[in-house]
Amino acid sequence: MNPLHTYAAIRNASPEGDLALLTAGHRGGAYERVIRSIWFLTAIFGVLCVFFILAFLLKDGLPLFSSVSPAEFLFGETWNPGGATPSYGTMPLWTGTILVTIGAMAIATPLGIASAVFISELASPRVRSVVKPVVELLAGIPSVVYGFFGLVFLTNALRLQFDIPSGETWLAGSILLAVMALPTIITVAEDAISAVPREYREGSMGLGANHWQTISRVIVPSALSGITAALILGMGRAVGETMAVLMVTGNAAVIPDPLYDVLSPVRTLTGTLGIEMGEVAIGSTHYHALFGVALLLLLITLAVNLAAMGIMGHIRRSQAGGNGPGRLSSLMQPHGRKIRTAGLLSLLLLAGAVFGPLAAVLLAVIVPAGWYAAARIPAAHAQRAAFSLMYAAIGLVVLAVAVILGDILIHGLPAISWEFLTGSPRNLGREGGIFPAIVGTLYLVAGAIAVALPVGMGAAIYLTEYTREGLATKIIRSGVDLLNGTPSIVFGLFGFSFLVLYLGFGVSLLAGQVTLSLMILPTIIRTTEEALRSVPDSLREGSLALGATRWQTIARVILPPAVPGIITGAILSIGRAAGETAPILFTAAIFSSRFLPDSVLEPVMALPYHLFILSTNVPGAQTNQYGTALVLVTLVVGIYLVAIAIRTHYQNKITW
Amino acid sequence: MVIPVEQTEPIITTRGLDLFYGETPALNQIDIDILRHRVTALIGPSGCGKSTLLRCFNRMNDLIPSCRVTGSVSYRGENIYAPDVDVVHLRKLIGMVFQRPNPFPKSIYDNVAYGPKVHGVRDKGALDTIVEESLKKAALWDEVKDRLHTPAMGLSGGQQQRLCIARTLAVGPEVILMDEPCSALDPIATAKIETLIEELREQYTVIIVTHSMQQAARVSDYTGFMYLGELIEFGKTEKIFETPDKELTSNYITGRFG
Ligand SMILES: Nc1ncnc2c1ncn2[C@@H]1O[C@H](COP(=O)(O)OP(=O)(O)O)[C@@H](O)[C@H]1O
Ligand SMILES: [Mg+2]
Question: Which residues of chain A make contact with B96, given a CB cutoff of 8 A?
Answer without folding.
Answer: 541, 545
